[in-house]
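User: I'm curious whether this sequence folds into something compact or stays loose and floppy. Could you predict its structure so I can see for myself?
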Amino acid sequence: MTQRIHQALDDPVRLDALSRYILRQTGSLRDFEALTALAAERLDAPMAAIGLIERDAKWFHTHLGFEREEIPADAAFGRFAIAQGGTFVVEDAAADPRFADNPLVAEEPRVRFYAGAAIEVHGQRIGTLAAMDSRPRPRPGDAALAALERLAGLVGSLFELHDAARRGRFSERALSHAEIRQAMAMRAAKIASWSWDLGSDIVDCDDTLRTMFGLPAGLPVTGRDLIAAITPEHVAALREALRDSLVVDQDFSGEFRVAANGRWLLGLGRVFERDAEGRAAAVLGVYIDITATKESEEKTRLLLRELNHRVKNTLAMLQSLAGQTLRRSRNDKEFTVAFSGRLQALAAAHTLLSDREWESIDLLTLLKTQVSPYAFDFDEQVAVACPDIALDPDEALGLGLVLHELATNAAKFGALSRSGGRVAVACTEDDADARVIEWTESGGPPVRPPKSGGFGSILIARSLDKIVGSSVEVAYPTTGLRVRIRIPKTVRPPSPA
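Assistant: Here's the prediction. I'll summarize afterward.
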């Protein structure tokens, strides 16, 4: 990889493009600053930069949140993006041997998280658009990285536009192509640009913005139209941010929801024209559709509340299991073995539910997870005749313990203690609209009823306490244990937050 990086950085065609098309200037341009700020906003990062990588040094064309102007090329995170193209992510630079001694990591701004996308100008990777944080962070989702890559594409287009304008070689046809390409990139990134003439209240925009606000295509748009489209609870904060921006030259931003379609938008803008008295005359900005991000945040909050509830339930279940196991164990060793097995059964059910974000799991998957460790050959010994049955979290946890108890008992005393033993699991529905799961063993040692309590009558029944209205019937014919579990299909209220 090191050789590949050096080859990429030293590529004479790349270096020629960098020197030919990019001017190293003392002050950055406003449109590049806006794209840098958009990258920081999209990845919710405190630092962002457009960095251009020469053979020996990387210099920052624009930067946000830190003060460095230049670093050695071999200290640039972006050299990996230059070598491989696309995006490059470091979740914790301090824990990564490639970057632990990097001056950006060991010194200010002490970068820990980095996400950068290669910038291409006329087909050559000349630098990166990157978002950074001084705290380690998990890898962003595919949508966020794709948006960062599209913003880097816009930066490359702007470099090409500025170069052509500077050289006086920008034909009408080339300009049209560049504008179309930039418009397509902005649509792909769900970004709508606009300009607002404050005197006439007319907003110059395209149909992408009209779609975002739920407005008819092709009709004139005013500032009043946009304000009226926003849900009332967000209007006051947005007006205040806009008023502050009109008084002083500063960017304004605000998140809000559109009443007509429920979209969440992020608005960014600034005054770009004032009259002779210094009053704001025109505002320029963009709206970014952040609906997917907001929905993801809400889903995460709901998942955390659900997880908090499940942890409390699990702790209560563990306390009950420990007490039951201790009372039914003859010595410490027996308690340790039995309780460890039940903990593992709970952990297996938790893992399945976590993988599916605590929504539901199917009975067959749960059955295989809990029974396979105790069978010589699951497919040979266990016959399952069940339709696709989805289990909610409470059902999965309760049934997971029941199936574990049935499997361990069968492995010790019943059908799974012999290679020729068989277990049949059948699922039906009774007249009362309940699901019935029947466990029937055969081919094992002769069965004798227990002297007291009964194997399934205590712990199995209590494992289903969380499933309101459930019941368990255990029978002991000599041919093999039979267990009938009934679970009602009634819809239970959601778990408390």
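Summary: The mean pLDDT is 81. The two ends are 49 Å apart (CA to CA).
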